[in-house]
Design goal:
Blueprint lengths: L1 E3 H11 L4 E4 L6 H7 L6 E4 L3 H15 L3 E5 L3 H4 L2 H9 L4 E7 L15 H5 L5 E4 L6 H13 L6 E6 H5 L2 E3 L19 H13 L3 E5 L1 H5 L3 H11 L3 E3 L14 E3 L7 H9 L2 E5 L5 H4 L10 E6 L13 E4 L2 H8 L9 H13 L13 H12 L4 E4 L3 H9 L8 E3 L9 H11 L5 E6 H7 L3 H6 L5 E6 L4 H10 L15 H7 L4 E4 L2 H13 L4 E6 L31
Parallel strand pairs: 2-3, 2-4, 4-5, 5-7, 6-7, 9-10, 9-12, 10-11, 12-13, 13-14, 15-16, 15-17, 17-18, 18-20, 19-20
Antiparallel strand pairs: 1-8
Helix pairs in contact: 1-2, 1-7, 3-5, 3-18, 12-15, 16-17, 16-23
Length: 565
């Protein structure tokens, strides 16, 4: 039986095991929606803005380990996806984006809602397709999923003209294999590279592991744990590497870098071996490159050869899938106990108590997040936006399960938290999902509360409401002579009333005594809940290493303020 291009897209998605799509229809993609109405196995979640479709697919992919899927029409529909696509690209998240395009005869004629979406997204996708023949639809979808999920994952866009979706029919032939000359994602690494890495690890006296998102992507968390425990190596995690190693583990030293724990950054500074696992040595971790890990040899293991020596020169670069490489490496690593080194790191923790929360009569955002973590007991999925709340969540939350922190790391996209949390909850309905937002970021995508209500997505939304763009204010405070221009939000809505307008319970918290009861009430209430925490407006994130500086320029919280809560 011959099928339309739209029907072939649906059949292809089923072949790939897709269960849910996030999207918003429009003229060029309507033929696909006409087919979707007949394919009830494919759940479609109607968002209020296409950016949310891409970010929800991103959150779904991170929470499940599957490929997320989003759909949009041509022109503004496709361009509205761009921020979400770029976010997935920067954080190596596998999503497939299907966009409608104007009919083939109209391409290049400035037709209504025509945009060269493949050209626009070329720099922010792993690969993309413009499918001009209905006979190529199935193979394009097959290849898109393969490319998205293999090697270093990333977004792949498939752009299909309206007439290819609607006007032509062909037999549905699903390709069982993919033939992509030149595309060979690495598996195991060169044994010689692995042997050299093991030699450095066995000889090191002050080693540290720096684990990134790759440990989660490659599902190498068990191997990471085994390596750390076998050789007694302290583990430091990047922002996206958080949850790759249990927060409560005695070898976990926390997050380094611009707003990481001071003792984690100092451990890197004093190490004689740095083992980078599935991370890319970005500037928020390294600061000034020439001063980063000055005494350390570097073993860098990553699936992407382009990351080798890009920012930090590796003594031993090892290219391969992290899970495979660690399985090669583990038998070669000797059992060892670095007693003096571990004691020294404990001393650094005591001398630089980065996680202490001072006593205050005013509701502090750090206090809110610590209480939220304590109530959740490490079992929730936490999705954050970008800014101060993101850093405090990374600092104060306990994460005991992989994939339990979802955040926009590389791109740093405000507004990520609401739609990504929806996607995470759709993918993991069994888990409590908290969306942590500032009042600024929340207002970028708060229209998706309607999506939560309409689709019965029981996300719990926490707003740290300080009436300001907190991180921008902090930078203005430190580096721009306290010139607080275009930073204060004086026209915020009443978020409790806003929630109620959507039919969602809203809770306002203004005092410390209300924090835990509000959190428990939100978690015990069925469906979505919004909790508006009115927090101190001028709080700063500490520690802080100014952009482009080194550990030696680190700003820590003033001593009188360092009192444990």
């Amino acid at each position: 039986m011959k099928l339309t291009g739209a029907e072939i897209v649906c059949e292809s998605l089923l072949k790939e095991g897709v269960e849910v799509l996030f999207g918003l229809p429009g003229g060029a993609v309507l033929p696909l929606y006409g087919a979707l109405s007949k394919y009830r196995q494919l759940r479609h979640i109607l968002v209020r803005h296409e950016q949310a479709a891409a970010m929800a697919a991103d959150g779904y992919a991170r929470a499940t380990g599957k490929v997320g899927v989003c759909v949009a029409t041509s022109g503004p529909g496709a361009t509205n996806l761009a921020t979400g696509i770029a976010c997935a690209q920067m954080d190596s998240v596998p999503i497939v984006i299907i966009t409608g395009q104007v009919p083939r005869p109209a391409i290049g004629r400035d037709a209504f809602q025509e945009t060269d979406v493949t050209g626009i997204t070329l720099p922010i996708t792993k690969h993309n397709y413009l499918v001009m023949d209905v006979a190529e639809v199935a193979s394009a979808i097959k290849e898109a999923f393969h490319i998205a999920r293999t090697g270093r994952p990333g977004p792949v866009l498939v752009d299909i003209p309206k007439d290819v979706l609607l006007d032509e029919r062909t037999e549905f032939i699903w390709p069982e294999t993919v033939h992509l000359p030149g595309y060979h994602p690495p598996g195991e690494a060169d044994p010689e590279q692995v042997a050299q890495a093991s030699k450095l690890i066995n000889e090191a006296e002050r080693p540290v592991i720096l684990a990134g998102h790759g440990a989660i992507i490659s599902r190498a968390c068990a191997e990471l744990l085994e390596l750390a425990e076998k050789a007694q190596i302290p583990v430091i995690t990047t922002l996206l590497g958080i949850s790759s190693f249990p927060s409560s583990h005695y070898l976990n030293v926390g997050m380094p870098g611009m707003h990481g724990m001071a003792y984690a950054s100092l451990a890197i500074d004093q190490a004689d071996l740095l083992i980078g696992l599935g991370m890319r040595f970005d500037d928020r971790v390294t600061g000034r490159i020439k001063d980063f890990a000055p005494h350390a040899k570097v073993v860098h293991i990553d699936v992407d050869p382009s990351e080798m020596n890009k920012n930090v020169k590796a003594t031993v670069p090892v290219v391969g899938d992290l899970k495979c490489v660690l399985r090669q490496l583990l038998p070669l690593v000797e059992r060892k106990v670095h007693v003096d080194w571990l004691r020294h790191i404990d001393k650094l923790r005591k001398e630089h108590p980065s996680l202490h929360i001072r006593e205050s009569d005013i509701l502090l955002p750090q206090y809110v997040l610590k209480q939220l973590s304590d109530v959740a007991q490490g079992n929730a999925i936490v999705v954050t936006g970008v800014g101060q709340h993101q850093m405090w969540a990374a600092q104060h939350f306990t994460f005991n399960e992989p994939n339990s922190l979802i955040t926009s790391g590389g791109l740093g996209a405000m507004g990520f938290e609401v739609p990504a949390a929806l996607g995470a909850k759709v993918g993991r309905p069994d888990k409590t999902v908290w969306s942590i937002a500032g009042d600024g970021g929340f207002q970028m995508t708060m229209c998706e509360l309607a999506t939560a209500v309409e689709n019965h997505i029981a996300v719990k939304f926490a707003i740290l409401n300080n009436g300001t763009l907190g991180m921008v204010r902090q930078w203005q405070d430190f580096f721009y002579d306290k010139d607080y221009f275009a930073t204060m939000y004086t026209g915020n809505p009443d978020f409790v009333k806003l929630a109620e307008a959507y039919g969602i319970p809203g809770i306002r918290v203004t005092d410390q005594s209300q924090v835990v009861p509000a959190i428990r009430q939100a978690m015990e209430t069925p469906g979505p809940v919004v909790v508006d925490f009115i927090v101190k407006p001028d709080e700063n994130v500490y520690p802080m290493i100014p952009a482009g500086e080194s550990i030696h320029e680190m700003l820590e919280e003033p001593l009188p303020e360092r009192v444990s809560q």
